[in-house]
Amino acid sequence: EVQLVESGGGLVQAGGFLRLSCAASGFIFGDYTIGWFRKAPGKEREAVSCISNVDGRTDFSDSVKGRFTISSDSAKRTVDLQMNSLKPEDTAVYFCSVNGLYWGKGILVTVSS
What is the full DSSP assignment across 54-105? Predict the structure, then answer.
């Protein structure tokens, strides 16, 4: 059974940082791309960043480029999203996903102004 569990969310002031972690199990970790998405109230779900465990390529949305980084640890089976210079508009529930097929339950990030 594929399981994705997010951790590391919380409340932070604008300009601060948080590190989200996605713990994965139930599939061959090295064969898939894992992505982070977010859903803010009243907005569509947005793809934030992803990393391929096959070739290490990464991608970021324009809204987070230069502020967020993504990393993968195959030994721990985790994909981390380091979020720096946070803005109030980064407030959302953040989800990790495997190829857009399997999803975690999400974790709330709140950035106060």
Answer: TT--EEE-TTTTTTEEEEEETTTTEEEEEE-S--GGG-EEEEEEETTTEE--
